[in-house]
């Protein structure tokens, strides 16, 4: 087993929400790591070596062993540094629920939101409605709680944290509205709670870079919109 | 534990339901199997999995747990003192098992399922190639995992079947059905000997053999789905 004292490196991309999650997890647990920025448009040999299957970030390297897939990485980090700040709940049923909602949110809200951002017209409208429905389910989940994890930030907060800083960028780039404060007041309050949390607020990517990158993606899939 | 405390809502042809059954068997958990009727979906299904309305759903002490791999991990967590651990004990090995199980669900199985509904010969060939490459990668992972530390294990999980064996092994029946209905050999002794040998041991394992549907029965069932499959996206 990799000891808690051995070196940790994180191959990452500044604009990637799934990379950001891993950073928040590491910081919450007080784990020191070396951040290595990857140019995803010009992938390094290191990345291709460490994640030959998907050739994607994030990749965590601990004691020289690579782990890919953000959620797999986070569970690994939680299990390895198990004496500090548990990310997953202790109770098996709560753990199952957490994993369920992350899967749901990643598919319906994150992936759905991204597709909406790069689409336009009727296709976009249809997708926006689907994502809003997903958001409403998350609203039900967080009602009455400060964080998804309860009084403290937990695994689900880390997994959904992208909503706080990236969703507004997608909304701007895609000329759409997904999170409406009147419809989702609890989520809106949660966004503010996260953005003022010490670990999150000091670990957010610069908005200009996010705008530039996401415009680039939208232009790539929908060039007609940029002429 | 009283039988009625643990219920599994499912259907015999589903590979995902099979995963839950194998996990429960490994842990020697008594459970009541409730066959979902579909057409229309039962009240129990709609109530216990309102988000996806899909099987399997494990109901434990009246609380529903959904999504096959989440169920498997839940069973491993709750009945941790019964029988062998389903997930490996070492965090790195657990990460590897989870990584490949994610790959099976996100890439391998969807490609396999899409072959039957492929539009045109080119797409069919592309999907077949994707499955073949996926199996080759899994074979590679199998070799690495089972020969770690000078060992020569029969399963991804070592001497016992584990998380990744369950994730992949549950698809064997449908893999064979895909081969037969498309006239293609995807899984063979020459290309993927490790996986093929492991599959045999898996299928005859005590926790698997009584719940794994026979291929010919799956084939009959698949034929009832085929006309529909050809017309869906």
TrEMBL record, chain A:
Domain annotation GST N-terminal: ranges: 6-85
Alphabetized UniProt keyword annotations: Transferase
Gene3D superfamilies linked to this entry: 1.20.1050.10, Glutaredoxin
Keyword match Cell membrane: no
Domain GST C-terminal: residue ranges: 91-221
EC code: 2.5.1.18
Catalytic reactions of this protein: RX + glutathione = an S-substituted glutathione + a halide anion + H(+)
Name recorded for this polypeptide: glutathione transferase
Automatic annotation (TrEMBL), chain B:
Keywords: Cytoplasm, Transferase
Enzyme class name: transferase
PROSITE patterns: GST_CTER (PS50405), GST_NTER (PS50404)
The protein's name: Glutathione S-transferase
Gene Ontology molecular function terms on file: glutathione transferase activity
Function: Is involved in the conjugation of reduced glutathione to a wide number of exogenous and endogenous hydrophobic electrophiles.
Record-annotated GST C-terminal domain positions: 90-225
Pfam entry (one): GST_N
Gene3D superfamilies hit by this protein: 1.20.1050.10, Glutaredoxin
Annotated gene: GSTU17_1
InterPro entries: Glutathione-S-Trfase_C-like, Glutathione-S-Trfase_C_sf, Glutathione_S-Trfase, Glutathione_S-Trfase_N, GST_C_Tau, Omega/Tau-like, Thioredoxin-like_sf
Keyword Lipid biosynthesis appears in the UniProt entry: no
Localization: Cytoplasm, Cytosol
Enzyme Commission number(s) of this protein: 2.5.1.18
Catalytic reaction annotation: RX + glutathione = an S-substituted glutathione + a halide anion + H(+)
Family stated for the protein in its record: Belongs to the GST superfamily.
